[in-house]
Amino acid sequence: MKNNIERRRFDCLVIGAGGAGLRAALQLVQADLHVAVVSKVFPTRSHTVAAQGGMNAALGNLTPDNWHWHMYDTVKGGDFLGDQDAIEYMCRAASRLVIELEHFGVPFTRLENGRIYQRPFGGQSQNYGGEQAARTCAAADRTGHAILQSLYQQNLRSRTHFFDEYFATDLLVSEEGVTQGVMVIDIESGQPLIIEAKTILLATGGSARIFRTSTNAMINTGDGMAMALRAGLPIQDMEFVQFHPTGIAGLGMLISEATRGEGGYLINKDGERFMERYAPHALDLASRDVVSRAIATEIREGRGCGENADYVLLQLHHLDPDIVKSRLPGIRGMSIRFTGIDPVDAPIPVFPTAHYTMGGIPTNRKGQVVVPLHHAPEEPQQGLYAIGECACVSVHGANRLGGNSLLDIVVFGRAAGNHIIDFLADNRFHTPLSEASIEQAMDHIQRWDKKGEGESVADITKQMRVMMEQYCGVFRTQDVLDEGVEKGRELLARLADVRLGDQSKVFNTARIEAFELENQLEVAMATLLSAAARTESRGAHSRLDFPDRDDREWMKHTLYYNRDGGVLDYKPVRTQPLTVDSFPPVERVY
Amino acid sequence: MIRFSIYRFNPDKDSKPYMQDYQLDESRLEGRKMLLDAILLLKEQDESLSFRRSCREGVCGSDAMNINGSNGLACITPLSSLKQPINLNPLPGMPVIRDLIVDMESFYRQYRTIKPWLMNDEPEPEIERLQSDEERKKLDGLYECILCGCCSTACPSFWWNPGKYLGPAALLQSYRFLVDSRDKATNERLDELEDPFRLFRCHSIMNCVEVCPRDLNPALAIHNIRKMLLKRAT
Ligand SMILES: Cc1cc2nc3c(=O)[nH]c(=O)nc-3n(C[C@H](O)[C@H](O)[C@H](O)COP(=O)(O)OP(=O)(O)OC[C@H]3O[C@@H](n4cnc5c(N)ncnc54)[C@H](O)[C@@H]3O)c2cc1C
Ligand code: SF4
Ligand code: SF4
Ligand code: FES
User: Fold this and answer.
1) ipTM, 2 decimals?
2) Whose CA is nearest to atom 1 of ligand 4?
């Protein structure tokens, strides 16, 4: 069987056609490299399309601003877990890269003077914690759509090779640990394909679909992270899951922070603007972990709205209706469609909703995957790269600021592209593929050809999502997390008994969902075990039994390996920036 | 019970397509209201039922299909708006790969044909290329297209002139670049449209406008391109 599998060869293979993958691919194709992009959906359907509010850069088009203030906000927003060299690199590059996107054709909203419109977002300040800044560059409330389309268009122009609707299952790794290629399935034909590449870049996006109520697209199943785990690599800081304060209650669709940036605010059942009590200065634009905890606390203490007192309200109807219609048209449409409420007239029911994966495959600021090997905690894996939401570089630390992810994906997309170009200049040849790794990858694929009666993919998926929501939500305690770990292990054990009812080849989406379930369970276990071990509260990880941040013990990154039922290791935070002074940890107030 | 009649075809085992009836117990929806919610539950009953989906909020363009005779996105089509049995078919006029999944290549090819990227050879300024608010507003109603294919596959001219007529989606995108004040290839773009088939096969049948889930108006864009061509000729 394995000898008949078709093979293709490229200098670089990018897995993922979201903003991160496409930005990297563009860098590579423009350097005349032979590059291919694999995506399980047509590129413009990648999840980046859903990003609403915008992308941060200290252009200073509206308020005074500079990259160093942006850096400060990002370090503080991440609760001092972010790596400050990477953060400096990102914030310095931001303005240039937004302008580059504009030159690529992104239809940013404009100011009177013709420059890019910027809106205030959570956690943004002037002068290291002073007045609110307006740093988020926006194309109405469809910024992700606008960026993704422009990047795809530029790749079309440069003739990047696309494998649309191909699903990557496993990395192919040599006995020496060098990544040599990837096993993919052509979804349309159902046939496996081996793609050999001298360099491989993972850009497979986040995994917040492991939670029942989620702002994420159904395809955000953590495939790249799970592929890394199966290849024996660790994933980092998985306990840090961002719950966005304003998902539509019960449904999960995102109502962007842009609503609060434009002047909206949250109220409880008494009509009280409760953020005044939690963040007297920044109010509704405190960082996301703070606002989500505030909402969860209001509800726990009985001040939620509705029959079951299980949500709060986001009010916009005090704003000029024309502003709502012109700057937030997509969100208004979404609210009308899914809740029947026009925010111009009445407030929207919202609840903290799983949104973003701060953790991911550990990398340095060049996008190289780094692991503890012999001598150092961060040794690059030759030829293997990761960027975007599937990676952890770590610029977001324990809590991402809104608008920093679209920035992250273009900054590190470009940086990884550049490093790959350099790497390929010295590494010109493919190495012979390891037959053992092909065999292993084929066994994995054929596992789903097993026939007979068994459990269903849908059942286990549903139970996992409910479990994660119940045992690994906004507030966490040891007992609950430990119980979650047990439940997760039970689900993993049951996975062995799952059978596919549909064994056909052509466009078998059930089979894809089975692979995605395996991946999600890997990521869920990483999240639970990392969370159960971290006995402090930091950023998005809040432990009722350990309410304080503990810098002496815990200012370090978690590394999780999936061997032996889950093994944890730790490595220090890179507190030293590239050129400026380090921002030492201080208490975080908004 | 909600009743469905769904187009089925699996080339692995079916020699020809057929319609299959399904029923869904409403309580299983747990309050969710959209057609996509329902067919996801049907897929739990019958794993083999196949369709594309991703964002489940109308922004990715994956789940375009023909719903009771009209093209739309399942994820933003309320069940309450649909007469039963709900008839689901693949997008018309496209080769079916399986069930509700069609081969979109001909649609994408037309999109690529119009060179959907900003062209401007002038030296890049260090800051953004300035664009007034007014100029930028001309892109509203154009840049939001999610390439779902609802419009083109509802357009009779697109069916009757395969590969020749560009179709509403591609023409809408063409106009998006024609009116972008930053794009400098207006003449070149118009030259390529001045052809008996590419543009002029639109007979203002307006199906495209009726079905667009983003409320865009390709017919108007096409009309405006014609005006640009006329103006250039005089
Ligand atoms: C609703 C919403 C709104 C947001 N708004 C903002 C915002 O305003 N500002 C901001 O900065 N951030 C925002 N974010 C976050 C931001 O959009 C994402 O973090 C970012 O777009 C991720 O980009 P990416 O390129 O890493 O991944 P994605 O865009 O998710 O792309 C992943 C790619 O990988 C491919 N892929 C995955 N697995 C496989 C596989 N097994 N085989 C083949 N291909 C695979 C997919 O097909 C896809 O092409 C938002 C997020 C959400 C959910
Ligand atoms: S108006 Fe033109 S493009 Fe639209 S459906 Fe009719 S013929 Fe097709
Ligand atoms: S114009 Fe509307 S219907 Fe046509 S592809 Fe774009 S979004 Fe879909
Ligand atoms: S699932 Fe994305 S548009 Fe319907």
Assistant:
1) 0.97
2) B56
